[in-house]
Structure formats: C-alpha cells, structure tokens
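Mods, move this if it's the wrong board.
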Amino acid sequence: MSKEEKALRQAIIDKCRWMNAAGLNQGTAGNISARYGDRMLITPSATPYDLCEPEMIASMPIDGDYGTWDGPLKPSTEWRFHLDIMKARPEVGAIVHTHSTFATILAIARKPIPSCHYMIAAFGGMDVRVADYATYGTAELSANALKALEGRTGCLLANHGMIATGASLDKAMWLAVELETIAKQYYHTLLIGGPVLLNEAEIEDTRKGFATYGHQEPKKKKLKTAG
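Not the wrong board. Structure tokens:
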C-alpha cells in the first residue's frame, strides 16, 4: 500500500469520526467512499469508526468484477450505490452518506427541498430531490439514487437519509454539512408558514458565483524551471 493510498484511507476514517462527533451521523449508520485511481475505497460494514484502521477500509474495482473487494472486512452494505455513482459520474471523487437528523426527517416525510436558500445552487438545480424508497443495499435503491442525482450533487433517500457527492472528500463533506443545514432551515420554515422561494434567475446568479465561493480545492503550485 502506497503512502498516498494509506493517507486517503486514514482521511476517510477521520471524516467518519468527525461527522459522528459533529452530529451529522450516528453510530455506524453512515458510510464514506473515495476514488483512488481505478478503485473505490469504502468504509467496512458495521464497524465502529473509532476502531477502524487504514488496512480495514475495503477496496473495490470500479470497472472490474462487480461487487468484489479486497480487505479483511466486507464493504459497507451500501457499497452498491457508492460504486454505481462512481461508475456513472467520473467527476465524483468521494461520496458521503449519513442519517443526519433534519435531512432524514424530510426524507421520511418524502419532502424534496425547494429553493428556500441560495445555497441550494450548490446541489446543481432548483431543488434537492427525494429518491424513491427501496430496501437498503439493493440494486433498486442504487437505481433510485442515481435517478435522483441526475444533474445534482446530492439527494435525500426516502425513509432513509442523504447522499452528498464531491470531487474530493473535503468537498463531499462540505456538501453534506450544507445539505443538513438547508434541511434544518427548511424544516423550521415549514413551522411558521413555509418559505418564500428564490426564482431560477436568482439561483443561477448564485451558481455562477460559486466559481469563487464555497469550498475550493487548493491549486497545485507550478514548479519553477531554471533559465
């Protein structure tokens, strides 16, 4: 295992521990994956994050034998939608799945999140959709999630939780936090009569501004050459 791969495995574990400590997830309910070359690294099934070591992260081929893995522990029971998203969306470098409280409340009520806040633009459109219900870990759930994610970077899973995707682990976790925050805000506006929604032009203005706003990946420094 290279130092780079080991560092990414440790970063996955660190993000899992952080999301639980931050209240974004509970126990072993959520899971995180990251792309590493032509493979996907994903948290193991039913393993407390405080006990995880880099060697325990499962490694799965993205375009190889579907569903096979390397590692001492089975991958998360939700490996299927993680893998299918990475296969279908090459721009996705990491996926965060949580059962965060307010996103899950809306998912249970099957309420999509409309354009109640300008940050909805971070998810690629005028709303965050709710994927149709299917049993966890199934091909049906994966297909439903892919449909809800068309043109989007995040979605809710009916009676289940949420998915946030990003080009990197940091970006995916940032979006997961934003999704839970918007879900909380939307939930509370429903208690006082409902939100005033932003229109398409207002959301589009925000989307354009995201080129220089929100979580930004650090730019690689160019090497200076002599002469």
